[in-house]
What we know:
This protein is an alpha+beta fold. The chain is 36% helix and 13% strand. Among the domains are: 2-32, no CATH class; 90-195, Glycoprotein, Type 4 Pilin, CATH 3.30.700. The strands form 3 sheets. It has a 4-stranded antiparallel β-sheet with strand order 3-6-7-8, covered by helices on one side. A hairpin with a 6-residue loop joins strand 4 and strand 5.
Amino acid sequence: xxxxxxxxxxxxxxxxxxFGNLPxxxxxxxxxxxxxPPFHQNKNGSPCAFTLVELLAVVTxxxxxxxxxxxxxxxxxxxxxxxxxxxxxxxxQAACDRxxxxxxxxxxxxxxxxxxxxPAGATSLFTSLLGSATLTTAPTSxxxxxxxxAMVYTNGSPNYFVDPWGxxxxxxxxxxxxxxxxxxxGGGNTNKWITSWPKM
Length: 200
């Protein structure tokens, strides 16, 4: 018994001929394996187009994945900005404490906590902690704080400290009591403000 496997039944006779003259007692079992058409081809071998439903499904899936990715990236940015603002508020508070240790008073500031993005208190804080009116000017007194360039608004004199959202840090002190320092966290409602005083 001889088993022949071929992908085309028309080749069977050619394969049998290759064996030459065989006794009549030999029997042949022929098996053919059909060739499957490639993806997106019909049985005749001509290409098929994508259907509108398939294209819409792919576009929908891509849109959902893009939305999830952008939403997660936005949340990460907001969390990073909040963490940076908390660290900067704490650093400014520590710098004010060092200033108080040397001068027996805090830098004076008159910013109104009810108003957002008012640099009035922030400019006096900047001048007191850096000993100069701008970041690039040589200090005329002891420097208590070394800010990163991104933390300073330099398009004016005196400069002032800004939070990661680009708003001025709020600062209020009567020189005697511990100062109030805050970030409006992008100008949102007061529950999201980042402050040097404990939340109630």
